[in-house]
Amino acid sequence: MKRLGVLTSGGDAPGMNAAIRAVVRKCIYHGVEIYGIKNGYQGLIEGNIEKMDVGSVGDIIQRGGTTLYTARSLEFKTEEGQRKGIEQLKKFGIEGLIVIGGDGSFRGAQKLTEKGYPCIGVPGTIDNDIPGTDFTIGFDTALNTIIEAIDKIRDTATSHERTYVVEVMGRDAGDLALWAGLADGAESILIPEKKDDLKEVISRLKRGVERGKRHSIIIVAEGVGSAFDYSEQIKKETNLETRVTVLGHIQRGGSPTANDRVLASRLGAKAVELLLEGKAGRMVGIQNNKLVDHDITEILKQTHSIDEEMYQLSKELSI
Ligand code: ADP
Fold it and tell me: Which residue ranges traverse the bilayer (predicted)?
């Protein structure tokens, strides 16, 4: 292959720029031309495609978001949209495509591969919800953003003797809430994978009050329900003064952590290697600190699950 393309798609995640940089530099290192497709699959359909060079990815490794921009494209979900995308790739002479994004974006990459166009997926999402990799690009940064915010909330929670319910991102996956809970010593976490736990949260809160605890932090993943509803229920059942903080989109932004930059660099470079080896329809990942790759179709059949041992530990440590 002499010419490859790269795009970012779906929800942005800190570290996507480091992955773009790795793809571009790795291509140039191997004497392969590399084209950037702006605005994800929508930009692909529209032919929003530009040649990249060493300088196009200078000074972006430390920046959040994605310099190639991202978009959601309904048109690309149709056969016609995918056909238009392939036409554009062929027009530019691009022989293989690297897609940095979440599982939705991988479905797009799978469709292109099925139609004979080689794609490799790089997992970029703060949710850490993609099977076949221990970590996705952006998770570590989002987690650290949450920790910083909760540390601040904790100060005011202690001063005022309050229970704080903090809503974090995670529609289907509780990883951010679970890891944040452990890292921040939260009293309880509520995550989509364990829907029935409110009773336990309440009895734990009551026990805490009995032994003189001044404050509590409850972390709720957005997918399990609204933090405001939980706050009301907790107030009703315990008479504790509760407050809600919804962290929202601050979790998506910011300069990527060292871990995310290194992960993104490794995964981006690996994706290029796979295409140059003639592989297609694969997703790159990291497992036990080793780079791996899996069949995208197989990955999309699996559902993400949380680490049960960590979940149990979070309970044991917050007694
Ligand atoms: P993420 O990649 O973060 O999960 P989305 O689920 O929004 O984000 O997917 C991003 C884009 O990927 C969609 O806007 C669409 O263009 C494309 N996509 C998603 N699902 C499919 C599908 N089944 N077939 C083709 N393209 C898809």
Answer: none
Q: What are the residue boundaries of the structural domains of the chain, listed by start?
A: 3-138+256-301, 140-252
pLDDT digits (tens, 9 = 90+) for 246-305: 999 999 999 999 999 999 999 999 999 999 999 999 999 999 999 999 999 999 999 999
Strand ranges of the sheet holding 242-246, from the earlier edge strand across to the other edge: 188-190, 216-221, 163-168, 242-246
Q: Are 274 and 293 in contact (CB under 8 A)?
A: yes
C-alpha 64 to ligand 1 mean position (Å): 21
Residues 288 and 121: their CA atoms lie apart, in Å, by 19
What does CATH list as the number for 140-252? 3.40.50.460
Q: Which atom of ligand 1 is nearest to the CA of 41?
A: 16
Ligand 1 proximity of 121 Cβ (cutoff 6 Å): no
User: Topology of 3-138+256-301 in CATH?
Assistant: Rossmann fold (3.40.50)
Cβ-count burial 7-31 (b if 16+ within 10 Å, e if not)? bbbbbbbbbbbbbbbbbbbbbbeee
Is the distance from the beta carbon of residue 124 to the nearest atom of ligand 1 less than 6 Å? Answer: no
**Closest-CA residue to 137 (of 40, 44, 270):** 270
Secondary structure of residue 66 in the 3-state scheme: coil
Residue whose structure tokens are 């910011």:
254
Q: Is ligand 1 within 6 A of the CB of residue 12?
A: no
